[in-house]
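Team,

Forwarding the record for the chain on the shared tracking sheet. I've put the sequence and predicted structure together so nobody has to dig through attachments.
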Amino acid sequence: MKKKMKKPQAPAAPEDSGSDSEEELNPEAHKESLKKLKSTDPDFYNFLEENDENLLNFDVDSEDDVSDKGEDDGDDDEKVHKPGPLRGDSDESDFEDEDAKPVQGKITLKMVAQWQAELQSEVKVKLTTLTTVIKAFNAAMLRATSEDGASEGEYKVEGSSVFNAVIQMCVLYLPGAIRKYLGMEQSGKDPQKCKHFIKIKTHLISYLGDLLKLLGGVTSENILTVLLKHLHQMAIYVACFIRIAKQALKKLLNFWSTGEETVRVLAFLCILRITRNQQATLLDSVLKAMYMTYVKNCKFVSPSTWPGINFMRRSLVEMFSLDLNVSYQHVFLYIRQLAIHLRNAIVVQKIENRQAVYNWQFVNSLHLWADLLGATSNKPQLQPLIYPLVMITTNTIKLVPTHQYYPLRFHCVEILINLSKESNTFMPILPFLVEVLTTFDFNKKHKKVSMKPLDFSCILRLAKSQLMENGFKDSVIERLYGLLLEYTANESHTIAFPDITLLAVIQIKQFLKSCSVSNYTKKMRQLVDKIEENSKFIERERAKISFALTDEKMLAAWETSIKTKGTPLQTFFENWSKINKIQKRKKITKNDEIAGELPKIKRAKLSDDAAQNAQPEDKGPVELFPSDDEGEDDHFKLEDDDDDTPAPKAKSVKKKKEKKKPAKKKAMEVDDDIADDKEDIVQEFSVSDW
């Protein structure tokens, strides 16, 4: 009865089905049939043996089932047959690799740590690791650029901690891992020649594109600095793809011209490295783009923009020096454009044409090409361009030789002096400087008083009101003195120095006779004395010469020996230059940063009795800081003055003398009080508060 209840069967005739059911459930009969199958159809049997072993091992489960039937009723529940797991192979199993199956879904910090450890592996870096990391970086970029902050793709980056971890992992460890995978441990190897480059090529394009997007969206200078350093490491791969390289250079040129100082330097290093890796393809377009960017950003010059313009000019000289044969075509074309502008200004006397020459873009272009020709003076490719550049610069001075454009004249003269010094080429510069002394009347009285001399470093043209100030004449004399001293010091070792400076010395002496301002004549007389002293030194050395003056080699060797030995004028200029640089730095920093905290004189306080004895009989207000301005008398009073009446004016010299001695003592007391307050303030002040 229990067996019937355990295994209910469909109603059937017991006579017809009894024997058949027993044969079907008999494992021995099934085993015999399988043996017959092996002999009758061996191919089918082998197929079953390879693909489905459960059918051949049917006897194991069957015997257990049969034993269940013969056992006691109490063990039936424990011996129930449980089918094993299904085993089946899909059609795609032969083409799939377990390593190639990434873990899909949300990225965790644990996953990032695992990838980071795989990137730092010393043995070998797998391609799957690199592709997974690049996909994770792409997911982070999708999160950063999407509106809702969610990334849709194979991976998802959620949370700022995971985002930062992914970016940090790629910046710190991905470049080294790629080099290790490509086998580029030795420097100077082209990535495109590595055998594994084709496998990672598409992934690199994706990663570099995402990196450029990230650069375009960053505003923090610190983060931008880190990303530019990373781009500098990846620059060798950027150069492999021309489209990516052009996109990168476009962004880098913007950073190079408008960024903060550190950002500018890193952007230029990236530009330089990308260009040098594809110099034949990229150099021509990079030079043109950098020059146009330089001209665009040097339109306005101020003390804040001047350092950036100088950096762009020096870096452009570096770029043009990479290949002088390619650079010659660009330099020739741009100098020719400057000459065309100058010719139009000379021929057509209109304000618009003059303004096309007398502006900062034109002057800074002259400065750039002069620096380039001076830096490449030891190579012959660009030397033929020195003459046209000098002619353009000198005719720019002659275009409008008025007093208003003295600052532009000084800028052009400074350009010529530097070019003459670097290229070792004689240029007639002295007439442009001495002309100022002979054409301007320095005895003319000024109509306005200026507190300090004008600064010509960031201006090209003076206003008419500035010409009336006394600071204008002071600045002109100072600038003339510095430029004359610098040029004559550069030429002080030449054998023709007495002849070069003879006419200039005569004209300066005429100025000394006509000028009645002692401050101006004192400087120029000192300059003439130094020039004449150097001329006598050269004449003494020249008298000892035994070779012919037509022997250029012997003449060059003689001048080199004189320069090495040193001349009186050169020694004087070096000492003056050191002092002048210190003064310029003080002006830039407003004297406070260099001077620091000034030392304080601690004065002993007077006792109460002594203070009472020191007070005058007439307790009137005492003038601590006498001034010529009558309106300033009321600004300084003693603290113990109870009278509201204003201080009486000093009518006679005798009263001033009587009040002079007690005024000093009262000033000491007030200074002591002020010093005490300052000391308290300094004690409360801390650097950590900033």
